[in-house]
Each structure stands twice: as C-alpha cells, then as structure tokens.
Amino acid sequence: MGCDKLEDLNENPNQPESVTADIMLPGVIRDISNTLVGHAFFISNCASQHTAKSLRNEVDIYNWNSAPIIGVEPLWQGLYGALRDIENIERVATAEGNDHMLAVGKTLRAFAFSVLTDTYGDVPYFEALAGEEGIFTPVYDSQENIYLAEGGLLDLLDEAHDLFQTGSGSISGDILYGGDADLWNRFANALHLRLLMHASEATDVAAEFADVATRPLMEGVAHNAALTYTGSFPNEFPLIPFKTGDFESVRLGEQIVAHFTATNDPRLMAYGRPTDATIGTDNEEFAGWINGGKGCDDSGSRLGYAYYDYPGHPVAPEKAKGVWLSYAEQEFVLSEGAFNGWTSGDAEAHYNNGIVASMMDHEANPEDTGLSSVDDFLAQPEVAYDGTLLRIQEQKWAALYFHGMEGYFEVRRWYSAASGDWAALPFLTPPCNNTNGDMLPLRFVYPGEEQSLNGENYNNAIQSYGGNDFNGAMWLVGN
Hints:
Layout: H1 2-9, H2 21-47, E1 51-53, H3 75-96, H4 99-120, E2 123-124, E3 140-141, H5 143-148, H6 153-166, H7 181-199, H8 206-212, E4 225-227, H9 244-248, E5 250-252, H10 254-262, H11 268-271, E6 322-325, H12 327-339, H13 347-361, H14 374-379, H15 389-399, H16 406-417, H17 448-453, H18 455-461
Antiparallel strand pairs: 1-5, 2-3, 4-6
Helix pairs in contact: 2-3, 2-16, 3-4, 4-6, 4-7, 6-7, 7-12, 12-13, 12-15, 13-15
C-alpha cells in the first residue's frame, strides 16, 4: 500500500511532464539574440572597428583568450544551450507532424551552429546533441564537413526550404516573425546565401549560390531577421542592465566616424551620440576612438541613444533590435554574388538597395547632413558604385554594425583573401599598440572547460590550429 501511494506522490501536478515547442521557441529566440547582441557590443564591433574599447582594451590590442565576458553569456555556452532546446523543438515538431515548426528548428539549428563554427572553427556538430544516446564527449567535426557534408549546414537549409514550401503547420510562440512561415523561409534562404559567401574562399559555391538566389528572399526591411525587444524583462534589450562603467568602455571607432564624415552619412547620428561638450547644442560633433587607443588619441563618442540610457543624456524612444540577418546584408551579399558572376543580377542595384535599407533600419535621413535626398547621397563620388569589390566591401562593412558576429566574420574574410594586407582594406587599419604583430586574430580559442570535460577530442581538434591559437586559420579562411 505504501508503494502505491509513493507512486502517486512522485507525480508533480504543478510541473508538466513534457514541454511543447511553442513554450520553448521564445526562449531560444531570446537567448540567441541576447548572446549575439552582447558579443557584438564587447567583441565583434570592436574587431571590425565599428567601435573601440576605451577601458579593458584586450579585444582591440588582440590579447584574446578564453575568459568569459562579464555580464554576457559566453558564446559557446549560450549557443549550445539554445541548441539543446532546438533539438527538443525539432523532436516535438516531428512527433506532431508540424512541418513548419520543424523547418524553423532546422533553420535555428543551422544559424546557431554557423555562428559557432565560424567563431571557433572545428566544433562538435554531428554528435553535439546526442546525450540521450550516451555520447557525452562528442568529437569535433571539421568545419568543411559541418558546412558541406550530408546533414551539414547547407543541407539543413535545403531541408528547411523544402518543408516551408511543401509542408504545413503552425509556428506558435514565435517572437521573431509572428508565426509567418513565408518570412522564416526567406530568412533561411538569405542565411543560405550568407553561408555560401562565407565558404566562397574555400570551395566553389557559384552554382549553389545561383540556385538559392532564385528562391524567396527578403524583400525589404520589414523582413529583417531581428528581434524587437519589448522594454521589460525578459525581453529587454540586453545592454540596458549593464553598469554605466561597462557602457563607458566602448566608444564609436575612429574608422567608422572617418568614413561617415567623409561621405556625409547620417547613420553617424544613429551609431553614436555627440561628444559631451556638444550634446544638445546646435553644433553637435562626433569623435572616434582609435582602436587600441590607450596611449594613442583618447577621444570618442559613446554609442547611439538606441543602445543604452546614459545618465544626463536624451533617451531614445525605442531601443535597438537584436539583429540576426538584415535585408541590407542580404542585398550586399547579392551584390557581391553578381559582381563575381554567380548570378545575372544587377550588382549596382543590390548595392544601392543595401545602403538605403541600412539607412532605413537606423531611420537615418540624408537631409540631416546637408544632402537633399538619398539619391544625392548615392551619387557622391565616395559612395557611388564604381564596379569594384572594394566599394561593396566598404559599404557592407558600414552596414554591419550590431549584426552579431557578422562584422568580424566579414572583415576576417576580406583580410584573409587579401593575405593579411591591411592596405587592401583602406577603411580599416591595424589597431594601435596591438600585441599580435598587426595580424587580425582568425578565430576564438576554445573555452578552457573543454580541455577538462572533453579532453581527448579537444586535443585532437587543436592540432588543426597549432594549439588552441587564435591565429590558427580555419577552413573558411584558408586552412
């Protein structure tokens, strides 16, 4: 009799025995967004020289290590944590026959894993989520296989596209696209193009790029993959809880200020705020901080009003969004694809679309810099499409502010394609006082805990990089 009663008592009426996909999806979207925003703020924007560190400038001077960033979920732990829930979302969607939710899961899986492998190189992929099968020390798969092998990233996005096109089902709990399967499909296809562009220095992607470019894609800024934060916990813009000192530690970079000033670009007023001496006056001025600037030229505007409420400064009516992939970025990808001859598209039209879309994203008005229209902005000699890849790169770089890790990924791709010649990227410069011989680090080092928790596979993985070295080149950039 006691055993029968104990069996009843072990059932908790206040805790569900299973969790539905719509309950897990908001947390996954939020966790990915928060992780990417935090790393854009502390690392990617600085590595791509959109911003510079005025305090604790290890990122700027290339003193990179595996220490976590205070106040931000570490990228490795944050994305692998999200992937565990993504695995469950896919499992539930499969059991329910919900093709569209399964396609969302595959898209999220491809997105999260793409950021992980593009950041670290070889990472656990095929065995990474196999704990229920008793695999607790997964092997690190080669980045090439993660991208190209059966079941890899590009396969996942093909599968997602097919499910969105031919399947059915609901996408409940969707705080990114409001349950719109068509918009998810467009994002998945834009992501597919992004990853093909990432891989283009390592493998021939022309035919696949041309094919994916014919699929449904984003058609305007309303299609951006970007989380709109609500202003209250738990969907609050993740920089808001930071201490003032943390926000103080990042300033607008000298390179982006110089570029925007030379081209009369009104995005300057959205990316940063005026200097303290001129804020709120009729002659507001902006200043850039030199990357690695301690001991160089210590000046620089704080980041724009949408990114933080700074004491004594005006407050933005709305905070920035958590950008995963924007229509502006997609258009620059298509512009480069057309430039390379992979599609018959108009490289100049896509280039102009990218610029205009980025301005729309930041509500930037050319009239604020003395120009009469967007057309006047595009017609400037320093901006007008001149048929060169460098012009596409420069304007794409200008648009990738707070795009997660993408700013760093693209600068790394261009830097590597130029064999480390900074002169090939005149809108950038080696950071002042850097400790890495002017060489841009090519990857993040693996978290220290991997050495103790998954030592054998970790030791095998680091052989590709001559040790756990941030200068080790991954497959994407020439390994």
